[in-house]
Design brief:
Porin, two-stranded antiparallel sheet, 3 helices, 16-stranded antiparallel beta barrel, 18 strands
């Protein structure tokens, strides 16, 4: 993988005036009050481990930005990377993004390669989010995609291999769309979707559709609000019916001053047929959650984050000590991150 990185540097070396490099390190410690066996937490990707200081995400990137050509190569590692790339070859899982693009008209770009996922208002990179952990609905949409992307102003179209996979796992391709609209300077709406054939529990690929609606309102310089509604459905693997699932999330953030902020989130996720989240329980995955987050900048490029989060499920899905299972789960996580640019 390092050879790919240095080969990319060789290709862009004639354009070094237009190249920027950066890096990011996100360290964390989490305490899950259920104290799961083997320190392995379930149903969230961040944080992944209990009572085990670790690296959530570390990456370095090279970004090319010229008038008619652009690209990014970012290599990554960490607990969230291992958790989210289990289906990929070992070499491929270290790619966060690897794409190159060209401008084909005044307002239109076409890119090809590996991209970060386009669905939702939260990033894989924790520093870009209002809360340290991602909402449940965004833990279960693609973190990354491979294919082609066409961008025209606030509209994007994706042609992808599938639902969170770099390598192709069936003969079909998937389609995704993103559309953004600023109704006012402080009110932004985003719609994302996905359509494609996806395997769930058998070798038979069946049609999946997913819709994500996001509304962000910045009331003033202090208060910001983010709400999302997601709806998906998967054709059943063994029958001719359709299994739906849905989720709703609301987050409010209060900017206390130039270095501190507080965020609160409530959410609900309903997947009783296990179309997207497997629990092997009778009522599937039906979970309510809430969290409180506190951020403080310790320096211009150093961020300290703390979050308390809890879940309540209709089934005993959360692991505890001595192989027990619980309806409830809660944890505290603290993070120290460094941005280099």
């Amino acid at each position: 993988m390092l050879r790919v990185f240095f080969f990319f540097l060789f290709l862009v070396s004639p354009l070094m005036a237009s190249v920027k490099t950066s890096g990011f390190l996100d360290t964390y410690y989490a305490w899950d009050f259920n104290r799961p066996q083997n320190n392995k937490r379930l149903y969230t990707t961040q944080p992944d481990r209990h009572n085990e200081p670790g690296i959530n995400l570390v990456y370095g990137d090279v970004v090319l930005d010229r008038e008619n050509v652009r690209g990014r190569l970012a290599l990554q590692a960490g607990n969230s990377v291992t958790r989210n790339t289990e289906v990929e070859n070992r070499d491929l899982r270290y790619i966060q993004e690897a794409f190159v693009g060209t401008k084909i008209s005044e307002k239109t770009w076409i890119d090809a390669g590996v991209f970060l996922g386009h669905i939702g208002a939260e990033s894989w990179v924790s520093k870009d989010n209002w809360t340290y952990t991602r909402a449940i609905n965004l833990d279960y949409v693609p973190y990354y995609a491979t294919g082609l992307r066409v961008t025209h102003e606030n509209f994007q179209v994706y042609l992808m291999n599938g639902w969170q996979n770099i390598r192709e796992d069936n003969k079909a391709k998937a389609l995704g769309i993103q559309w953004k609209k600023n109704f006012r300077e402080n009110l932004k709406f985003t719609y994302n979707n996905f359509f494609g054939d996806e395997e769930v529990v058998s070798s038979r690929a069946r049609f999946r559709a997913y819709h994500n609606f996001v509304l962000q309102w910045n009331r003033d310089e202090r208060w910001q609000y983010l709400s999302a509604f997601d709806f998906g459905h998967q054709s059943q693997q063994k029958n001719s019916g359709v299994d739906p699932w849905w989720a709703v999330t609301f987050t409010a953030r209060r900017i206390l001053d130039e270095i501190r902020s507080v965020a609160m989130r409530v959410e609900y996720y309903s997947d009783p047929h296990e179309a997207n989240i497997r629990t092997r329980e009778r009522r599937g995955f039906q979970v309510a959650g809430a969290s409180v987050n506190f951020d403080q900048k310790l320096a211009r490029n150093v961020l300290w984050r703390n979050e308390v989060r809890g879940f309540s499920s209709r089934e005993r899905i959360y692991p505890g000590k001595n192989q027990t299972r619980s309806y409830l789960d809660s944890f505290f996580v603290t993070s120290l991150s460094l941005l280099l640019e």
